[in-house]
Design goal:
Shape: globular
CATH architecture of the largest domain: Alpha-Beta Complex
Mean pLDDT: 95
Radius of gyration: 20 Å
Order of helices and strands: EEEHEHHEEHEEHHEHEHHHH
CATH topology of the largest domain: 2-enoyl-CoA Hydratase, Chain A, domain 1
Low-confidence stretches: none
Largest sheet: 7 strands, mixed
Number of helices: 11
CATH superfamily of the largest domain: 2-enoyl-CoA Hydratase, Chain A, domain 1
Number of strands: 10
Strand content: 15-25%
Number of domains: 2
Length: 270
């Protein structure tokens, strides 16, 4: 059953549940919502809980203040250098934890939509590229700018090169230049762009359209979407054929097809 609107405020991450949609707001505007140790921990915990939430069908992620996310917290990273090994172990742990969050987004059963404004740089751009979909406000700037400070954005590159054309990704990575929302939409980094005052409503509308579909079908479809991408054509068809057979075994899929034949609204239970 859908649930009423409920908001839980944490020190660094706000969780709002509205019916079948869960909205996460990164709430560290003074740091431009950087993926600090605290932010990564909060996101990891929240995403883990949402993954097991049978009511939630869609997740949206936004940032408080004037930016979506400015990437890793450089002040924290510089402090790590004080360790005896120059911070190598802590840096490795940081990127492992960030990778875990990114992988969790794609592995969780619910589609995840980034609601982007201001800037999305370095690991912040990685977060946009990792989400299943993204909506951005006009004027938003996207970049993998680490090269400007002598640090090539190697981990953000993984998600970026899977979201846009390799040559454009390489240009962004090696020049540190920004692209705007219109370019991001053309390249496929985001799904659509809109006026800043319409960003929240446009994202919510997309989330609601998806939440209105059969949840079980969307869940199995998301898993199949990412799994088939890394297979050969023949293997992908064999795999997705099995997925179709499994999907057809669902009671609610049978109901949906019968409702279509009978020209009525389906009585879905999931």
């Amino acid at each position: 059953m859908p649930r009423a609107r409920e908001t839980r405020k944490m020190a660094i991450l706000e969780i709002t549940q509205r019916d079948a949609v869960t909205h996460l707001t990164m709430n560290s505007p003074e740091r431009l919502n950087a993926l600090s140790d605290e932010m990564l921990a909060a996101l990891d915990t929240a995403l883990e809980g949402i993954s097991n939430d049978a009511v939630c069908r869609v997740v949206t992620i936004s940032g408080a203040g004037k930016a979506f996310c400015a990437g890793h917290d450089l002040r924290q990273m510089q402090a790590m250098r004080q360790a005896e090994d120059g911070g190598a172990a802590q840096f490795a742990d940081l990127f492992d934890r960030c990778t875990n969050v990114m992988l969790k987004i794609q592995k969780m059963p619910q589609p995840v939509i980034a609601q982007v404004h201001g800037i999305a740089t370095a690991a912040g751009c990685q977060l946009v590229a990792t989400c299943d979909m993204a909506v951005a406000a006009h004027g938003t700037r996207f970049g993998v700018n680490g090269v400007n400070i002598g640090l090539f954005c190697s981990t953000p590159m993984v998600a970026l090169t899977r979201a846009i054309a390799p040559k454009k990704a390489f240009e962004m990575l090696t020049t540190g230049d920004f692209i705007d929302a219109q370019q991001a939409e053309t390249l496929g980094l985001i799904n659509t762009s809109c006026a800043p005052e319409e960003l929240a409503s446009e994202t919510a509308a997309l989330a609601d359209r998806i939440a209105g579909k059969l949840g079980a079908a969307v869940r199995i479809g998301k898993r199949a979407f990412y799994e088939q991408m890394h297979r050969t054509m023949a293997d992908a068809y064999a795999y997705t054929g099995d997925i179709m057979v499994e999907n057809l075994s669902y009671r609610d899929t049978d109901e949906g097809m019968q409702a279509f034949v009978e020209k009525r609204k389906p009585d879905w239970q999931q």
